[in-house]
Amino acid sequence: MENAVATLSDYELERGKPMPSLLHARAQSNLVALLYQQSNYVCLSELSLSFNDWDSVPDIAIYQQNEVDFSRDETKLTKLPLCAIEILSASQTLDSLVDKAQKYFENGVKSCWIVIPRLKNIHVFESPTAYEIYREHQTLIDKRLGIEFPLSQIFK
Question: Quick one: fold of 15-65+77-153?
């Protein structure tokens, strides 16, 4: 019996990540908007990162506020974010995102979130093995970054 080979879309081949869905896009948009309103951080979506011979494109990268030089642009940032947020897509596995979170920590991030839109929850990791799960009716607290907001504002 031959093994079935998954066909990747142009999007997935170009970006090296699964194609986002409606729930993914909604959660990502709501998170970026809420984080801008309720924190002093800069939240950048779909930013190409490259550090220590590892490339990644987190759904959202959280950085300290800083001035931007609009006279030049960068296609791959080598500055590590404070937090990387990954949103589970329909074609991804949770294991793949947990592995990715571990790589972020190996490279020095302070916090990593894994968002699971269908279950309306967010796992907030403060290390590869220490995390809290916040559900739709709860208030998310990221102690490392001092971020706090009700999840009901994300999954609406």
Answer: tt1808, chain A (3.90.1570)
